[in-house]
Amino acid sequence: MSLAFYAAHSTTSAPGDLAHHYAGLPRDPARLARITRDLLIHRLEGGIFGHTVAVDRLHHDAETRYIDDILRIVVARDEAPLTRRREPADRFVGVCRDFALLLCSFLRHMGVPARIRSGFADYFGDSGFHCDHVVTEYWDEERGWLLADAQLADPHLAGHWKIDFDPMDVPRDRFLVAGEAWRAIRTGAAAPESFGLHPPEEGPMFGEWFVAGNIRLDLAALNKVETLLWDLWGEEADNDVWGPDGGRPEMPDPTRALYDRAAEVTSGEVSFDAVRRLFTENDSLRTPKTVLSLAPFNGPRHVTLR
C-alpha cells in the first residue's frame, strides 16, 4: 500500500492542467534529475553560473509552492519542451525543496514511488556543519529507497562542491534525515549547533528548535504534504520560536519527548503506518489548513493551503 501511496501525486506535486508538458519525458530517474537541474537554479547559485539573479524573481519564484505554478513560470519563460536545457536567466529561481519536489513530481508521473525528505547535508562546504537541505527519496526495485539530490545532477555543480558520490544514491551518512540529526543530538553524538541553515557565527538559524522544525516538515512530507521550508504551525508558530532578535526559548521537556517520538518514526526504515498515525493523531504535528509562512523576502503572513 505504501508504494502505491507514494507513486500517486499529492496536491503539491500534481502538474494539473500543465501535465501535457510531461509528454516525452524519459523514465530513467537519473535523466529526470538532470532535466530537473536544467530547469531550475537555486537562488544562491548565481555566482556559480556567472549569472545575476533578478531581484523580483528572488521575491516571487521561491514563494511558489505548487508544481503546476512552478511549471507555469518555467514554460512562460521558455516554451521549449521540458527536456531542453534552459539558460540560467530562463530558469525558475528556487531552493532545494523545489528541485526535490519537481523530481518527485516527474517520478510519480512515471509511476515511480517518490517522496521528499527534509534533513541536513554535510557536502556544501568542509566545515563539519550540516546544512539544512531537502532531497528526493525514490524507490528502486532492486535496492529499495534511495536518496537523490537533483541539485548535483549537473557535473559543474558536483565539481564545484567536490562531490565524490553518485547524486542518485546519496550516502545516508552525508545526508541525515531530520530525525537522524535529532537522535545524534539527543545521544550526544553531535552538537546542536552543527545543524542549521547556516553556522552559528552567521546568524541564529541553527540548533535544537531548527532540527525539530525539520522533523515536522519531514513528517508532513512523508504524508505527502510538501510545504515550503519556512511554513510554521503547531508549537513553533504559537510560541514564535524564531523571534526577530534570534532568541529561542528553552525547549520544554514534553516537546522534546514529542520530537523523540517523531524522530523515531521518521528515521531508518520508515514505517508507513507509524508516520500516518502520528501525523493524523497529533494536532501539533499535523499540518493545518492555514500555516504561518515566514517568507524570507515577502515577510511573515498566514497562508491557506489548497
TrEMBL record:
Listed InterPro entries: Papain-like_cys_pep_sf (IPR038765), Transglutaminase-like (IPR002931)
Q: Which SUPFAM superfamilies match?
A: Cysteine proteinases (SSF54001)
Q: Which Gene3D superfamilies match?
A: 3.10.620.30
SMART domains documented for this protein = TGc
Q: Which residues form the Transglutaminase-like domain?
A: 88-152
Name recorded for this polypeptide: Transglutaminase-like domain-containing protein
